[in-house]
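Final paragraph of the annual report: two paired records, presented back to back.
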Amino acid sequence: MTPHSIRRRHPCKSDCGFSLIELLLVVAIILIIAAIALPNFMRSKIAANESASVQNMRNITTANVVYSSTYGAGYASTLAMLGPPSGSAEPSSANAELIDEVLATGTKSGYSYTYTPGTPVNGVIDSFQLTSSPVTPGVTGIRYFYTDDSGVIRQNTSNPATASDLPIG
């Protein structure tokens, strides 16, 4: 037998490619793996967002201390004041360039930040409160966070955190 005659006896039509059953089995296996992996991925993303939120709150608190000592006017009255100046302007008390421009807008890494300055006394703001809430609760984060000029970060899993909640630990 010559190789040419062997090819004629075994046509490629039935031997080439995958059958529909084989393709369905591969798709089913991929779907099962995805069903197992997706919840773990979501939990990891939530944990990363929460960790980033805590770090961002620390950054804002530190930026406020630096702002107060640099400009002598107490804490900033808005988050934007801690952010960078527009264009190529030099940092000033209006835009101190102590936090990044994304965080200065009040939303970053799946969390929304609400900054509330204290009441000025003789033109000096000597306190502030900062809360962070998940943009989409249960999807971008589960916990809510709170801090103030004391620097202690507190958490709550069901409602926005306040000064009476337990510190993170």
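The closing record of the year follows.
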Amino acid sequence: MDIHSTEFYVMAFGVAIALVALLFGQRDRGAAATRIVALNLEPDEADQAPSLSLHMLADGLHIERRGLSLPADDTVNLVATIIDDKVHVAEKRGVVGRGEVVTLCGKATIPLNGKERWHVRYESEVTGQWCLIAIKAREGAQAYTEMKY
């Protein structure tokens, strides 16, 4: 095969495409795990902006969601999808109440283990708010952020 032939350039182009695909191709991701946890709601005494506090415990990630405006008899569930070191948490409304709208504080613990750091994306389908936050996966670690629209 001659270096100036069309076949050579076609093969060289094919090899170049294969190398680029290997270098920039999608990496293998771990299997996804989904956890559904009830958000325990209670009246929020402090009148503060909607926020999210994370606390690492021995048995998982404790979430404290403040400034949640809902009818007092509503229920909210957290659906956590875990892939590698990323956690996507979605707040989903369960039972829709018809009572007076009050400011609530919600608490839940999502079972997690085995990583050095967790990157959390928290979205509220109930209020349309969201946030991004990272926390070290060591017992006692804490993180805080305000929710965005």
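The CA atoms of residues 60 and 111 lie 4 Å apart. This concludes the annual technical report; the extension proposal builds directly on these records.
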